[in-house]
Amino acid sequence: MEAGNNFKQWKKQCLSKLDFSKKGSVDEDIENIVSFINECHNYFTTSSCSGRIILIDGESDNTEVQKQNCSWLFVTHQKCQREDVLAGLRKACGDAVFKFEPFVLHVQCKQLEDAQLLHSVAVNSGFRNSGITVGKKGKIIMAVRSTHCLEVPLSHKGQVLVQEEYIDYVVQVANQKIEENQKRIERFHSCLLAAVGAGEAFGKDRVEETKAEPVYTRRRKRGQEKTDSKNASPVQDDVILQNDDEDSLESGLHLFCLETY
Amino acid sequence: MEAGNNFKQWKKQCLSKLDFSKKGSVDEDIENIVSFINECHNYFTTSSCSGRIILIDGESDNTEVQKQNCSWLFVTHQKCQREDVLAGLRKACGDAVFKFEPFVLHVQCKQLEDAQLLHSVAVNSGFRNSGITVGKKGKIIMAVRSTHCLEVPLSHKGQVLVQEEYIDYVVQVANQKIEENQKRIERFHSCLLAAVGAGEAFGKDRVEETKAEPVYTRRRKRGQEKTDSKNASPVQDDVILQNDDEDSLESGLHLFCLETY
């Protein structure tokens, strides 16, 4: 099948691209998973996020649920503290929302059977909303997803609506979710390793003796700091591969760059 | 392919089964979509929920994020009022959480191409987290999903943590989400109808002159009222098809029963 023949070419192109995400690198907690997958014959990752707690400031009176004009007040891929949220809220002008978003991973697969195998791994690890997309050009993407979430409005038109004790509590809830999320990631990694023997899908690509470090030649613009800083960025961050049937793989690539091809 | 040959049989079996969901019927807002799909050659629905606003009471000090022991304090598939939430909270003993959950639909498809077509319809309608599952026995499921959500803790160990003004606000936010959800459902329905000419996948099954009404012979147990009532039920309700690779289709079936087979 033409798509199968193209797979190697697609992988080579993808892994040689720059990381266009705002963060510019794979999240630490999933580096091992991403690199493992990219070393396998029949897979490569196209986008990822280990999971995060964020505070975003949206426009008030915006009836569009997809708030396009948001700024990020705070983001972390680890547990957070009350003070992080309070500090963020002090800068809020609109409708601030405190959110937890779970691990997301998009993997392009050589064949449908490869996607099915990876899908089993994802579901068995607790990522029950995972699913496969098959584009018109034959590109097969397996998306690791879960329903695990938290979304808590905290201010409206810049006015904080809750007391600090409530913020304490939602921070605690979000931290529990990050913790559970981490357990699922570890479970996913274990299942992935266990699946290595399951078939040639997980056979490894040749890896050069000198392991390539991620190479990002694209410099950040002056004044644009890492995503975890207070210089916030719009919502569409480093993770969003929209599984559309135009087979677009160019949104938010997190790549572990290999020089094997 | 054997799976393709089995499709007619699977469809017949599925459509003749009882609806085991607590509600016992397809949600009104999506009856037309469900019936349309079930009249098509290459598809049948296995579970659905039009979207809902719920207030659930979970066990406190339960570090398991998936709170297994929850009771439902309130549920609606339409907009809600502040008083609904306040009334529910008065009965809360543990950690009450106010949630919005979007439209979910699971459709078994005859061939992968049929799933791809339906997937395009779903994504174009705004359900961007939709995805396909292909089970070991060849069962192909397309799940319509979105990330659209709201999850707001309101009480901890039975103590309400917020003021009524905040509840007013989150009710307003949830109602906006239900409204947006409804627009997406309508968009999905329109796209579905537009796709009718796209191929034989959407060719219609023969429908008997006398349209079959949903037939549910399984009576509710005494005292067990509809889901929307105050006699709450555990969280696992009428929607949950877990896309696992055991190809289980028996959780939470919502069926529009046809007597065409």
From TrEMBL, chains A, B:
It comes from Acipenser oxyrinchus oxyrinchus. One of its GO terms (molecular function) is methyltransferase activity. It holds the Pfam family TYW3. Residues 9-192 form the tRNA wybutosine-synthesizing protein domain. Keywords: Methyltransferase, S-adenosyl-L-methionine, Transferase, tRNA processing. Gene3D superfamilies: tRNA wybutosine-synthesizing-like. This is tRNA wybutosine-synthesizing protein 3 homolog. It comes from the Eukaryota. Residues 213-243 are annotated as: Disordered. It catalyses: 4-demethyl-7-[(3S)-3-amino-3-carboxypropyl]wyosine(37) in tRNA(Phe) + S-adenosyl-L-methionine = 7-[(3S)-3-amino-3-carboxypropyl]wyosine(37) in tRNA(Phe) + S-adenosyl-L-homocysteine + H(+). GO terms for biological process: methylation; tRNA processing. Probable S-adenosyl-L-methionine-dependent methyltransferase that acts as a component of the wybutosine biosynthesis pathway. Wybutosine is a hyper modified guanosine with a tricyclic base found at the 3'-position adjacent to the anticodon of eukaryotic phenylalanine tRNA. Belongs to the TYW3 family. Pathway: tRNA modification; wybutosine-tRNA(Phe) biosynthesis. Its EC number is 2.1.1.282.
